[in-house]
Amino acid sequence: MRDYDLIIVGAGPAGLSLAARLAQAPLRIALIDKEPRQNLASPSYDGREIALTRASIERLRTLGAGQRLAPDESAPLRRAEVLDGASPYVLPFTDRRGDEPLGALVPNAAIRRILFESVIEQDNCDLFAGQAASIESIDENSAKVRLPDGSQLTGKLIVAADTRFSALRKSQGIGARMVDFGRTMLVCRVRHARPHDGIATEWFDRGQTIAMLPLSGNQSSFVLTLDAHEMAAVRALTDDAFARQVERRTKKRWGDIALASARYYYPLVAVYADRFVAPRFALLGDAAVGMHPVTAHGFNFGLRGAFALGNEILSAQRQSRDIGAPQGLRRYEQGHRRATLPLFAATNAIAKLYSDERPLARLARGAGLRLMNATPGARRLVEASLSGAHA
Ligand SMILES: Cc1cc2nc3c(=O)[nH]c(=O)nc-3n(C[C@H](O)[C@H](O)[C@H](O)COP(=O)(O)OP(=O)(O)OC[C@H]3O[C@@H](n4cnc5c(N)ncnc54)[C@H](O)[C@@H]3O)c2cc1C
Asked: I want to staple 189 with a disulfide (CB 3.0 to 4.6 A). Which of 28, 101, 229, 260 is the partner?
């Protein structure tokens, strides 16, 4: 039996961010992940290029992680444009003052690596890699976690950052609202002949949603969303046939295309936990809020949550209060719900509207873009959310 203050299950971006937030605190932290240490230290590229808001870029620097990115691992996002089908209408999003990037694109693997490097240098955190944790018991005074080798860890608080299909959440009887979009997202890197000028383009077309996210040089992340049936046909294409198909799907807007990475596939299921906290237990990252990626907020919310929960833990520790006491956990839950629920609902509504091919939905989409452009308040809200000003 080993004794800790805080046990974090899941050393993904969210769990690592919480551990890093508490680097200076006189707390004993156990960080557990089922992946072997080598996979955590050098995560493989998984096709995800994370659009970080300005607030998230700042937070990663505060954690001492942002500084560890190589120059070619971060590409500025200067502007975002939304297109609807064949319509020439473009809805642009820029920085409010027009002079600063909206954010940056960074590979998920790089985010995991830099956070891991920061955490592994901490004196107050023990890593248990290659071990899937389960909850043994939680009572008034402490919480216990069991590892597969039979050993047990005790703490005052367990934080579950163990993916959107969190087994720990389920084990504590916390339900979640799940929205299965029945669609699959393909992500990969492509090289193209024409420059992207730092513009992210999101393109809602008949039966498909496409995004081209600007990376360094003449490279972009190509993101394609289709129903599972159509995606099966795309999976079967050779790399060369796939590149030709990307040219056709993007109407050669970026010129000739060559595939620059493997292709990765993600089934689209959004998840929102019914509660984020229970006695001596809190959910973090996708385990609390698993977003549809179309509005690029999943990790941005996870990082926000790590700071919110971390601040509650820090203030309890400084005032010699119990870090697992309900008051602090409830404040985290209330604040994080307020910050995430409106965008969770709006994102799901957008994803549904833009995958609906009925004539009324198509009409609503065209009208929606124009209405948003004509309503400065609505556009500013989205721009603020893109830069993270709301977080
Ligand atoms: C295609 C795609 C594009 C995206 N784009 C963006 C974007 O542009 N912007 C953005 O902000 N977000 C984006 N996201 C979302 C972002 O990737 C996720 O929100 C983020 O990775 C979630 O981090 P996490 O730490 O909560 O969970 P995960 O990354 O799922 O990590 C969970 C960890 O828990 C471990 N684990 C699970 N169960 C156990 C257990 N029982 N014991 C021990 N360890 C366990 C796993 O091994 C894993 O390491 C995107 C997602 C996808 C799929």
From this structure: 260
Distance separating alpha carbons of residues 141 and 215, to the nearest angstrom: 49
| Contact between 134 and 167 (Cβ < 8 Å) | yes
Domain 2-177+268-387 has CATH 3.50.50.60: yes
Sheet holding 277-278, edge to edge: 125-129, 29-33, 6-9, 157-160, 281-283, 277-278
Where are the chain's structural domains?
Answer: 2-177+268-387
Distance of alpha carbon 220 from alpha carbon 206, whole angstroms: 22
Q: Nearest C-alpha to atom 15 of ligand 1 is from which residue?
A: 298
Give, to the nearest 10 degrees, the angle between helix 298-318 and helix 326-353: 170
Mean pLDDT, consecutive 10-residue segments, the chain of 391 residues?
A: 95 98 97 98 98 96 98 93 68 66 95 98 97 97 96 98 98 96 95 94 83 94 92 96 95 95 96 98 98 90 98 97 97 97 88 65 58 54 53 51
